[in-house]
Design goal:
Layout lengths: L1 H35 L9 E4 L5 E4 L5 E9 L11 E9 L4 E3 L5 E2 L8 E8 L6 E11 L3 E2 L8 E8 L9 E4 L5 E3 L5 E9 L14 E8 L4 E3 L5 E2 L9 E8 L8 E11 L3 E2 L8 E7 L1
Parallel strand pairs: 2-10, 12-20
Antiparallel strand pairs: 1-3, 3-7, 4-5, 4-6, 4-8, 8-9, 8-10, 11-13, 13-17, 14-15, 14-16, 14-18, 18-19, 18-20
Length: 288
């Protein structure tokens, strides 16, 4: 009887040791796998999709949008009230980063574990060429979602060199009717530029619009064609006006007399706006 009990006890011990070995092995395997896995934290666990394969836009195109779907696997609601926005990175066609931080698109609330269609707002580059538009989300002053493991989506973007400035749809105005200065003085004139066209006036880049002027005598004879250039304060979108302070200075103003200063716009290396239909703003100037 004692022998049977000992055998039975030994069998139980062997079974327990077997179970413990299995549990230990399972824990070790899980630990090894877990250490090397890329587990996305739940607050950054989203999936982005779009049915757009590629985009083609003109240089200078008005801001446009990309339709996409956000599939949230988060355990909490997501919205821009929490400082979270849609955005994008702009890459060259071979994947080099050109502009990492771009404009933001606000998000309305997306339910926890919810799916919602959105439109990403973006502006085409002002240089023609082939690009990649990489869509991402950002939690302001915290992190980009892609840095926390969320996969981005990338859409090829072709920008065509077909930009036509709105030469005839710009209006120049000023609250100044005439200018009177002493010889050798430098004057600053306030201008109002109204963009009544459908295309923006860019403040920087290849197609930047600059403010300048021509100087004539009272008979209309050209004395100076290329005046000092003044930059726009910022890109002037369609339907928007901008107030700019323009400095005028030239050796001509060392000689007393009456002149006419003709304010104009120019894109360097392309054309003066007045040569393509813009009505210049002409203001009499008297040098004492």
């Amino acid at each position: 009887m004692r022998k049977i009990i000992n055998i039975h006890t030994q069998n139980i011990f062997i079974k327990i040791r077997g179970v413990m070995f299995f549990i230990t092995a399972a824990i070790s395997l899980f630990a090894l796998c877990g250490c090397n896995s890329n587990i996305v934290p739940s607050q950054y666990d989203l999936k982005l999709t779009t049915n757009i394969d590629s985009l083609t836009l003109d240089v200078g195109a008005a801001p446009t949008s990309l339709p996409l779907t956000i599939d949230s696997r988060r355990y909490q609601e997501l919205s821009s009230e929490q400082g979270i926005f849609l955005s994008y990175h702009l890459l060259s066609s071979n994947g080099d980063m050109l502009i990492f931080d771009n404009e933001r698109t606000p998000l309305e609330a997306i339910d926890a574990r919810g799916v919602k269609k959105e439109l990403l707002n973006f502006t085409a580059p002002i240089e023609s060429g082939d690009y990649l538009l990489q869509v991402d989300l950002v939690e302001e002053n915290v992190a980009w979602f892609s840095e926390k493991g969320m996969p981005t989506i990338t859409v090829p973007l072709e920008v065509l060199d077909t930009y036509t400035p709105p030469y005839t749809e710009i209006q120049l105005d000023s609250e100044v009717d005439c200018i009177e200065i002493s010889a050798g003085d430098v004057a600053t004139i306030p201008l109002i530029i109204q963009n009544a066209g459908a295309m923006p006036l860019y403040a920087t880049g290849k197609y930047a619009t600059l403010i300048s002027y021509h100087i004539m005598d009272t008979s209309g004879n050209m004395l100076l064609y290329d005046g000092i250039r003044t930059n726009l304060k910022e890109t002037l979108d369609a339907g928007v006006s901008q107030n700019v302070q323009v400095e005028i200075s030239d050796n001509l103003f060392n000689t007393p007399g009456n002149y006419i200063i003709s304010f104009d716009l120019v894109i360097e290396g392309m054309a003066w706006y007045s040569e393509n239909g813009l009505e210049t703003l002409n203001i009499p100037i008297k040098v004492k």
